[in-house]
Design brief:
The structure is a single chain. Helices cover about 45% and strands about 20% of the residues. The protein contains six helices and five strands, in the order E-H-E-H-E-H-E-H-E-H-H. A five-stranded parallel beta sheet has the order 3-2-1-4-5, with helices on both faces. The mean pLDDT is about 95. It binds adenosine-5'-diphosphate. The site of adenosine-5'-diphosphate has 16 residues, from helix 1 and strand 4.
């Protein structure tokens, strides 16, 4: 039987931390599906299609990774894809409480699928999409945190928004 892992998130935008998790998970499963959440309580900078497209571009070198969007409940998406694993990254103890709660809820909703946590590589522990966005808004250099393609898109997005305001 094929083992399919779903790695869900907002990916607004995808960072090198996310790429690290996917790269390390890809040899462990037949397929890793990076599942980009369409409906999220977060106010995203990038639209769902932009987040999918950027993630696809950045992960295209890994052959057993697919990028797909999902709406509604992640558990329904995981079931539809016949996934046996939900993958989540852990950066610090502060991530743990929320992630543990989420895993518990998901287990209740979908006992046949287990959550696997991957600790981030040390060099990426401090990277988050929200900090990358904050730095990019003020024209800061985010090239150490995201793929060059993401860097370029962030630059043009925020150059445009600053032009509009001025
Ligand atoms: P969400 O909105 O679901 O938290 P994110 O896109 O912020 O979505 O993150 C998706 C997953 O990636 C989460 O499990 C998160 O803990 C993990 N993650 C985020 N940043 C990093 C990083 N720098 N290193 C490893 N994992 C990360």
């Amino acid at each position: 039987m094929k083992t399919i892992a779903v790695y869900p998130g907002t990916f607004d935008p995808i960072t090198l931390g996310h790429v690290d998790i996917v790269s390390r998970a890809s040899p462990l499963f037949d397929t890793v599906i990076l599942a980009v959440a369409a409906s999220t309580s977060k106010n995203t900078v990038f639209s769902i299609d932009e987040r999918v497209e950027l993630s696809r571009e950045v992960l295209k070198h890994i052959s057993n990774v697919e990028v797909q969007k999902f709406g509604g409940l992640m558990v329904d998406f995981a079931r539809e894809k016949k996934a046996s694993v939900v993958l989540r990254g852990l950066r610090a103890v502060s991530d743990f409480e929320y992630e543990f709660q989420l895993a518990g809820m998901n287990r209740k909703l979908m006992p046949e699928v287990d959550t696997i946590f991957m600790p981030t590589s040390e060099r990426y522990t401090y990277i988050s999409s929200s900090l990358v966005r904050e730095i990019a808004v003020y024209g800061g250099d985010v090239s150490d945190f995201v793929d060059p393609k993401v860097c370029e898109v962030l630059k043009s997005r925020f150059e445009k928004s600053t032009e509009k305001k001025s």
